[in-house]
Structure formats: structure tokens, C-alpha cells
Amino acid sequence: METETLEIRQVAPTFAAEVHGLDTSRALPPRDVEALVGALDRYGVVILPKVFLTPEQQIAISEQLGELENSDEGSPSFKKLRENMKYVDSRVSEISNIAQGDTLLEETDIRRLFTFANQLWHSDSTFRPIRARYTTLSAVRLPGQGGDTEFADVASAYEALSDEDKTEIDGLLGVHSPTVVMEFMGATRPDGGGFVSEYGTQLRPIVDVHPGSGRKFLSVASHCSHIDGLPLPEGRSLLTYLREQATLPQFRYRHRWSLGDFVIWDNRSTLHRACRFKERTQGRQLVRTCIKDL
Ligand code: OGA
Ligand code: MN
After folding, report:
1. Phi/psi zone of residue 107: left (φ > 0), alpha (ψ -120 to 50 degrees), beta?
2. Over the chain, what is the mean pLDDT?
3. CB 250, CB 24: distance < 8 Å
């Protein structure tokens, strides 16, 4: 007889949980997929410690959560980049500062830019026409120190806002584009010109509703450049304030990676960012999939 074998252990005050007891060696039975989606609705971040998935197993589990994002879609430059990556399947990408041949990336390698841009609070692919519902990461190689990933619970953060704040932001739309982040990072094209978005801009509600939990959440990723219909400085000032409220220490969970950890997060109810490490001298490599928010 099948018995309930999942053990869920919350690891931060308001969200994030370790899940034990999933057999990840093969496709999950429907009731485990349901339990996993339920845990993501409730906890936003789900951690399977030290499960050491192969990229194939990671793809298989990711596909049970929905249709995978193809990192090349709408981005000729990403397609070109991926030619240098270890994983040539466009359903996986990697977060890595390691080049082919196992050396660290050259100083001028554009992929170093992602390492830095990921250190800004964000939610994946909000600047694409279809944002990412979930992202998964598997830790393959870790630096001796640092390189954690921090998450923020943007549903609890919304609920903690004052009634005045909630009224002020009700109905506002954010304008999302990678350009604002690339300009902040000082990124330029190889010819020295300014960064140009391959995706145009996307309008997304600043206060959104999570269909799984019914809770409202703050959608204020760093790629949210400004507020539709407000002067740029006014919108940016409001976004800076909201991003601060969204990421207050009491709404955070910091994941200190161990090799083999597999982490899945819901990009709607959370923000995340990479933490610094000695990327000039130490290697860090995680395998990544994104599930579309269709
Ligand atoms: C990502 C990401 C953070 C990290 O994979 O989308 O932001 O710590 N990663 O590498
Ligand atoms: Mn990310």
C-alpha cells in the first residue's frame, strides 16, 4: 500500500522548506508532483538536500512541473553563448564561471556579467513575454566560501505593508526590461555601444495574485525599470522603496549550498539573488532549468 512518505521541514520564519522522501531517480508519481506543487504554493522555495541529480533527471522532474523555457527563445545572443557551455541542450542552462577546459572565465567573458547581474534581487525572466513560473538549480561545483543564494518572501512582505501603501500601489503596472539592469551593470556591446534589449518591454502588475495560494505578492524585480504612466524618477523611487520592503531581513531565506543540493523556487511568490564569492579564483557551477508561467 502506498503511504505518505514526504517530510516537509520549514527553514525560514515565513517560507522555504526542505522536502525529504521524494524518489528523484525516476519520474515522480502524480501524487508526488501534486505534493511538490502544493509545497511550492505554500513555501515558495523547496530544497531537496544532496540528491545529486543528473541533468537528465533534473530535466525530467522539471518537465513534470510544466513546459520548459528554451533559453535561446527570442535571444540570438544567448544561443551563441550556449555554444560555449557544457550543456548544449537548450532546456538546461548553467550558472557558471567555469569555461570549457575547466579554467575560470576570461576577464572579458560576457558570462561574468551574469554572475554580477544575478546579485541584484530579481525574479527570473520577468522581461520575457512569458516569465518563469519555477526555476530549478542543482549544485555541481561550489566555491570554498560564499556563493549562497538568497530568497525573499514577497507575499508576506506585501501583507506587511501599511494600508496606505497597499492603496497607493493598487492597480499600478511595472515596465520590465533587461536594459535597466544591463545599464546599471555598465554592460556594453562588443562594439562599445549601449545594451539593447532583445525582448522589448513587458507590463506586469506591481501587485499580483498567486493562483495557487490566492495570496497577493509584490512583483518588483530589479528588471522592473519604472511604473507605467508615472514620471521615471517617481516610479523608480517607489520601486526602490517597495524592493526594500520586499526584501527586509525577516522575509529572507539564505541557502548555503552543499554539493548535490537541488532547489526549486516559485518566481511569483519570491525574489532571489546570488551572493558574492571569489569568482576570480574559485569555481561555481550550477545546472539550471526554467519552467514557463503559461
Ligand atoms: C538563477 C539565479 C542565483 C545564484 O539561476 O536564476 O539567479 O545564486 N541564480 O546563482
Ligand atoms: Mn535568477
Report:
1. alpha
2. 92
3. no
Nearest to 43 by CA among 10, 22, 11, 15: 15
- Please enumerate in sequence order all residues whose Cβ is within 8 A of that of 211, keeping only pairs 6 or more positions apart, or say none: none
Q: Tell me the pTM.
A: 0.94
pLDDT at res. 266 = 98
Nearest residue (by CA) to ligand 1, atom 3, is: 274
The dihedral built from the CA positions of residue 68, 72, 74 and 78, taken in this order, carries a sign that is positive
**Residue 4 pLDDT more than 80?**
no
Task: List the one residue out of 116, 127, 237 whose CA is nearest residue 185.
Answer: 116
Distance CA 179, CA 147 (A): 25
The superfamily (CATH) of domain 7-292 is Clavaminate synthase-like (3.60.130.10)
> Any residues with Cβ below 6 Å from ligand 1, and which?
95, 118, 124, 135, 137, 149, 272, 274, 286, 288
Q: Ligand 2 (ion): which residues have CB within 5 A?
A: 124
- Mean pLDDT check: name the lowest of 103-117, 118-132, 257-271: 103-117
Give me the residues paired with residue 138 across strands. Answer: 262, 287
Q: How far is CA 214 from CA 41, 86, 100, 209, in A?
A: 9, 39, 45, 6
Cell numbers that stand for 202 in this block: 513587458
Helix, strand, coil % in the chain, rounded to nearest 5: 25, 25, 45
Nearest to 97 by CA among 57, 68, 140: 140
What is residue 3's predicted lDDT score, i.e. its pLDDT?
44
